[in-house]
């Protein structure tokens, strides 16, 4: 579930808020001038963990770049997001940034797993910003058992159980049965 602070804040105020000692063990995103706390649930966390295991292994075995989990932050179109998982190719960012809270370079691939508290407007804003940044997005809905594949410049493709998720140009050769993410 995501809890939104209603007041519009500056980026500087966002960073000050995030760095407070009482917020040390919490995750926040900066979306449309608002501070949004990122809170997951077991179902969403499990789907994210499975995706990281499958695509992460592929990335590591093939030495394609770096992966991050839900604590990895990125600056996306001027806002600060923490996707549930992400992939950064060595081509896009040859050197890992040194000790930055939010990587200044948008990832090649972001995986967002929906939780019950996500609002339609948050998802619309984030999806548009990922596309503007040139980031492929796998928007995963554990409740509906779907993965919406967003590729900049292309129509969104909805995958269901029975379909195969492919890595496309970002992860060439990667294939995964959608059912493997949502099996019980």
Attribute tags:
184 residues; 24% helix; alpha+beta; tt1808, chain A; three-stranded antiparallel beta sheet; 14 strands
How would you sum up this structure, described in words?
By secondary structure, the protein is of the alpha+beta class. The chain has 4 helices and 14 strands. The strands form 4 sheets. A 6-stranded mixed sheet has the order 4-7-9-10-11-12, with helices on both faces. It is globular and about 45 Å long. The relative contact order is 0.15.
List the helices and strands and how they pair.
Elements lengths: L1 E3 L6 H8 L9 E4 L2 E5 L3 H20 L3 E4 L4 E4 L2 E3 L3 E5 L12 E2 L5 E5 L6 H13 L3 E6 L4 E5 L6 E4 L3 E3 L8 E3 L1 H4 L2
Parallel strand pairs: 5-8, 9-10
Antiparallel strand pairs: 1-3, 2-3, 4-7, 5-6, 7-9, 10-11, 11-12, 13-14
Could you state the CATH homologous superfamily? tt1808, chain A
User: What structural class do the secondary elements suggest?
Assistant: alpha+beta
What is the beta-strand fraction? 25-35%
Give the helices and strands as they follow along the chain: EHEEHEEEEEEHEEEEEH
| Number of domain units | 1
Q: State the separation between the terminal residues, measured CA to CA.
A: 22 Å
Poorly predicted parts: none
CATH class call: Alpha Beta
Total beta strand runs: 14
**Which oligomeric state applies?**
single chain
What value does the Rg take, in angstroms? 16 Å
Helix content range of the residues, please? 10-25%
Report the principal-axis shape: globular
User: How do the strands line up in the largest sheet?
Assistant: 4-7-9-10-11-12
Topology-level CATH name: tt1808, chain A
Mean pLDDT: 87
Q: What is the helix tally?
A: 4
Main β-sheet: number of strands, strand sense, barrel status?
A: 6 strands, mixed
CATH architecture: Alpha-Beta Complex
């Amino acid at each position: 579930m995501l809890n939104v602070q209603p007041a519009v804040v500056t980026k500087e105020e966002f960073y000050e808020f995030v760095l407070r000692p009482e917020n040390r063990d919490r995750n926040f995103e900066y979306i449309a001038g608002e501070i949004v706390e990122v809170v997951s649930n077991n179902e969403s966390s499990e789907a994210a963990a499975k995706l990281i295991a499958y695509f992460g292994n592929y990335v590591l075995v093939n030495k394609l770049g770096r992966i991050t989990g839900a604590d990895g932050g990125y600056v996306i179109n001027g806002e600060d997001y923490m996707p549930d998982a992400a992939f950064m190719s060595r081509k896009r960012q040859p050197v890992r940034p040194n000790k930055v809270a939010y990587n200044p370079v948008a990832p090649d691939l972001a995986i967002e797993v929906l939780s019950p508290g996500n609002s339609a407007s948050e998802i619309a804003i984030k999806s548009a910003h990922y596309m503007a940044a040139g980031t492929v997005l796998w928007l995963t809905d554990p409740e509906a058992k779907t993965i919406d594949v967003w590729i900049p410049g292309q129509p969104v493709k909805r995958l269901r159980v029975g379909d195969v998720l492919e890595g496309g140009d970002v992860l060439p050769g990667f294939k995964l049965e959608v059912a493997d993410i949502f099996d019980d």
